[in-house]
Write a structure and sequence with these properties.
Two copies of one chain form a homodimer. The first copy, chain A, has five helices and two strands, in the order ααααββα. By secondary structure, chain A is mainly alpha-helical. Chain A binds a DNA duplex through α4. Chains A, B: This is Winged helix-turn-helix transcriptional regulator.
Chain lengths: 155, 155
DNA sequence: CTTTAATAGTTGCAATCGTAACTATCGATT
DNA sequence: AATCGATAGTTACGATTGCAACTATTAAAG
């Protein structure tokens, strides 16, 4: 269709962004309405809530692909709500370990109910096949991300 | 792994956003450095450049999943560079048809070279299988988006 | 040890964003 | 044809963002 060899509809960053935005907007509207949570806050809550052990802010950033200042502010926000508490690392006092409080875990559980319901809607929308393919494709990217995180890069 | 039934690593909005962000950041750095282009500007340029006919601002917005104010500003930016020209619709004067100028098409061609090179890198990074799966999955979402666009929704 | 480089996290500030309100125009209803 | 509701696009303004610079701390190099 294009004169030269480039096909925008096959260009991954464009397609991914479009899909991610489409899918995120509706869900964000839900938790924003119910909890006045911002996107970075939800993503931080999710990262912490899904982890069995405490994480540092940097961990949250790499796990969610968020800029460190975004994480920093989200952490402050969640702390003000008393959904999260920080604790200094004894060996390395630059680090702070982040953990959800009881209230935070409760909120997380409620949010995951919303999330599950939304995931089910998406499932209906794109079908089992689409879901499986997407999952496999995202896994491939996630492997690449992990690989890239060993050899560092500024985010 | 999670206590309840929710698995963040299987939650589509989170995964998509993460992947999209990872993939977009590196590419954005390239065209920002070479052309001082913002992301919305690149996306608008891309939408127009890949289309055979003129588009309205609304078209650009739905095609790229960008908010209309973002599109509006990106259009102004591209117009100032003289990469894009507007023309009023004769039948409906609310509409303006957007087209790239010669300079705009040239820029688009240069940008698509960058894009192709980047796409090749991604291809290497995630492999043929990952690429195919991802493509199939994204297609499923894109179909869903098109469907959703018939029955409207505020973006 | 002392100096230097690297890392974790925060913050000031300018740039960007999205909501809501606005202008202008069109189509439908009466 | 006057009114009302919808749509295209813009803009004012408060909120959010990311860059760069900063503090504090640790690791590495000499």
């Amino acid at each position: 269709m294009a004169v030269d060899g480039f096909e925008l509809n096959a260009f991954l960053p464009y397609r991914l962004n479009r899909a991610a935005e489409f899918v995120a907007v509706r869900f964000a509207a839900e938790y924003k309405a119910r909890y006045q949570l911002t996107r970075p806050e939800w993503r931080t809550l999710a990262a912490l809530g899904s982890s069995t052990h405490a994480m540092t802010a940097t961990d949250v950033g790499t796990h969610s692909a968020m800029h460190k200042t975004k994480v920093s502010r989200a952490v402050s926000g969640l702390e003000e709500r008393r959904w999260l508490k920080r604790s200094e690392d004894q060996d390395d006092r630059r680090l702070e370990h982040l953990e959800l409080t009881k209230a935070g875990r409760t909120a997380y559980r409620e949010l995951t109910n919303l999330a599950s319901a939304y995931q089910a809607q998406l499932h209906d929308l794109i079908g089992v096949g689409g879901m499986k393919a997407l999952s496999a494709g995202l896994e491939a990217i996630e492997r690449a991300i992990d690989k890239a995180e060993k050899r560092p890069s500024r985010t």
